[in-house]
């Protein structure tokens, strides 16, 4: 299985452990993630006003660089921006013409845009993943935290049920963990408000972590570096927060092999 | 009710750019009930739409609410009228940034210690400058 891979800024800095563990796991599972050459920022936030063309340039440049091959991201925010930028290009010929003319690329919205979790679920399959698990996470009580960007808007993201998603719980079960259900798993963590309105972000993150703790979770998993930052930066005792890929690599017994994948 | 010409210009541009018509809203307030950051807002999310319907643009310009909205899309996912309030909020933010011809956040405003800056994901800084500055 061959894919083009877009890391994004945070996976090369604060979230290096997400990239290391995901690449090690992918390599063990026979999933080849080939990094795009000279990639740039995904755009960070999807432009919600149609006259904001300039903020579409970097995601469309990235999409065009994949050359129609399936394009995989690990960061929930990067995936969100790339997926929705592709929808704009597919649905709005006028915007497509302006953006692709400016970039001098030929791109009409081709190629699958995937989050790595979707590759595991839809292309590999959780049943096949389960067969590869050599160090099951038996007895570990883990809660999945989805946040916003993977799920919403569901019509565009087409990732999972936006109010009752199961993909991360299904992943945890295939890794042998005990799934803990929590009330706030699809609520916003506070996002970038931690930069300007720290108290607001802390309050949203606390609700999520405290509800997971009350439900009996020992740890949370996420697919977003900013979610992890906010969930770890609450007042009072926190729960450990892992990237989904860290537990995946651990269950596959490849946590120590990251140098191989980085190769 | 008779609205000014400048209101019509504003609302036409808002509709065109966001694809959302505030007059579609019947004020059920489901958006406000589900908003995870509502406690920090001065206007509730459904009130922002009401203010748009009533042409109270000056009040919206002064409101803290559009800057608290983090575009989590929970309101849009639950709206029985299929309105995307996150887009309307973006339209209001952009209008304010453009009208004032000034940014709401500059690097000098950041009150972050060097340790915090090192830990804070790069995506948070890029996102906040994308939302609060043009």
Q: What is the general shape of chain A?
A: globular
Portion of residues in beta strands of chain B equals under 5%
| Terminal-residue CA separation of chain B | 34 Å
Number of helical segments with 4 or more residues of chain A: 13
Helix content of chain B: 55-70%
**CATH top level class name of the largest domain in chain A:** Alpha Beta
Query: What CATH architecture of the largest domain in chain A do you see?
Result: 3-Layer(aba) Sandwich
- Mean pLDDT over all positions of chain A: 95
Average per-residue pLDDT of chain B, rounded, comes to 94
What name goes with the CATH superfamily of chain B? Alpha-helical ferredoxin
Tell me what portion of residues of chain A adopts beta-strand conformation: 5-15%
Would you report the number of β strands of chain B?
0
- Biggest sheet architecture of chain A: 4 strands, parallel
At CATH level 3, the topology of the largest domain in chain A is Rossmann fold
Sequence of strands across the biggest β-sheet of chain A: 2-1-3-4
List the helices and strands and how they pair.
The complex is a heterodimer of chains A (263) and B (134).
Chain A: E1 2-6, H1 16-28, E2 32-35, H2 57-65, E3 71-73, H3 76-91, H4 93-103, E4 113-115, H5 116-124, H6 126-132, E5 141-144, H7 154-157, H8 167-174, E6 178-180, H9 193-196, H10 198-214, E7 219-222, H11 225-232, E8 241-243, H12 244-252, H13 258-262
Chain B: H1 5-18, H2 30-34, H3 45-54, H4 57-62, H5 65-68, H6 74-78, H7 85-100, H8 114-119, H9 122-132
Helix pairs in contact in B: 1-7
Model description:
The complex is a heterodimer of chains A (263) and B (134). Chain A is α/β, with parallel strands linked by helices. Helix content of chain A is 46%, strand content 11%. Chain A has two domains: 2-116, Glutathione S-transferase Yfyf (Class Pi), Chain A, domain 2, CATH 1.20.1050; 132-255, 3-Layer(aba) Sandwich (Rossmann fold). Chain A has helices at 16-28, 57-65, 76-91, 93-103, 116-124, 126-132, 154-157, 167-174, 193-196, 198-214, 225-232, 244-252, 258-262; strands at residues 2-6, 32-35, 71-73, 113-115, 141-144, 178-180, 219-222, 241-243. The mean pLDDT of chain A is 95. Chain B has nine helices and no strands. Chain B has 134 residues and is mainly α.
